[in-house]
């Protein structure tokens, strides 16, 4: 009988939970299926009501909580983006402990004013910009899941304080099913009493949806001309908004990215790169976003140090896009879960389907980079991997081979149905990935195309046969070239290529040796390719030796064991200096 009672109780709770979770019309709206081409009609205010959670707490309780928050603030702390420090040993210990949960120093954040100032990090020329007096309006969409109160509210205040009211139509907060009490009743109370009611909307999602579907829900609830997405832990720099809106007015299909500055997760320092040295977005064949230098040709093409600077990809969290164009160009892949991959998906899609991605150097936003994800991944799924497999299957054509060389495991994982995305690409007559590489990212190294030879690099004299091997140093930028028994199939650790111009290299790193011509024996190191050849130039000669041009020496593995470093020694007739590439494209 007690079992039955227990089951009944459990059932009752589930029903109660379901009924509280489906009480608002907003929640129905988010379920709408794929609709890429047409923007939903701009919602009226009444379509997106705030949902007031039933809670035992009263307005007095919320007032007390807010008063408590305010009492913790140390005036002036962190102003102008200065680094801050905790001194009290107890607080330090608490901060340390909470770091493991929040992925940033929440104790410190709680002491810094929600309206602290940050430095004007912009290029001096930005001060002389002129903007149209008829700019489009903006909806700023901020998605969050269990974000800490102070970082979320600092983001909101920062946007409100640094955006001309007539251009900022609204901030749309999208709560991706947070379960922190303070993000429910207290948040609604704060919006009602402390923030302009006509400016800040709150959309609650009825289930954990992940950042991609959360952004879609925000976009559906937004009504201004332009959508601007931000992460929930950002601070904007003076006049961040106008350059974005101005550019969209000039070029409707440009998707715009601010310069993203770093707010330290430890001391909250706002640090900014020099305006001349900002970077744009690239990608790795393993399917990750990465930063790259602005190519010299682009510096010329853009015409000015503060001109719109083309970027092959974007980091994903912070960007502006014409609201109707967002839908026309395919919004997002709604079947992507939680985190990861949507940034490259949108980047490839926008370029290949006729738009462009540009960094606007006079628009700057700081972002707290967190060392890990302070939220769950339901089902323990590798959502970055799966989402990225969806991206490569839809957008990368044959080049997906390079991705699977890194992620062989994903070839057998269920990544869901991608037919709708493929259909969209077809219907929009989007260009090929090769077009993207040739035209948008010509400097991207293609390890099996831009080469004389590639694959496993084998020495047949050794037993077992040894091949060059990265020995899992992939994320390092300075390590020695090693060897390991040749694998049965080509995997990324053993992928080396000899580029057409004579580098012995991987995706980003080149094999380098000292240029000394003495008889000394040296090591070969992998360091970022510098493109200048010199100490990174190699020749694979008729005998099969890999000869370093600057020193005249050869790669040699005599007496080198598995996982040890190869030598660069005077060339000889040793068979331990002879290497075969698995694939030779230019004999
Ligand atoms: O399930 C989730 N639901 C959410 O609403 C998971 C996350 N989120 C929210 C979260 O609260 C945050 O506001 O989504 C936002 C992004 O999550 P983060 O801050 O954990 O992501 P990130 O900053 O580590 O990751 C970057 O790459 C992601 C790839 O999916 C997203 O595109 C992030 O927006 C993106 N952040 C940036 O581009 C900021 C600049 C960083 C860089 C480089
Ligand atoms: Mn983030």
TrEMBL record:
It is a single-pass type II membrane protein. Residues 455-582 form the Ricin B lectin domain. This is Polypeptide N-acetylgalactosaminyltransferase. GO terms for cellular component: Golgi membrane. GO terms for biological process: protein O-linked glycosylation. It comes from Cloeon dipterum. Keywords: Disulfide bond, Glycosyltransferase, Golgi apparatus, Lectin, Manganese, Membrane, Metal-binding, Signal-anchor, Transferase, Transmembrane, Transmembrane helix. It is found in: Golgi apparatus membrane. Its main location: Golgi.
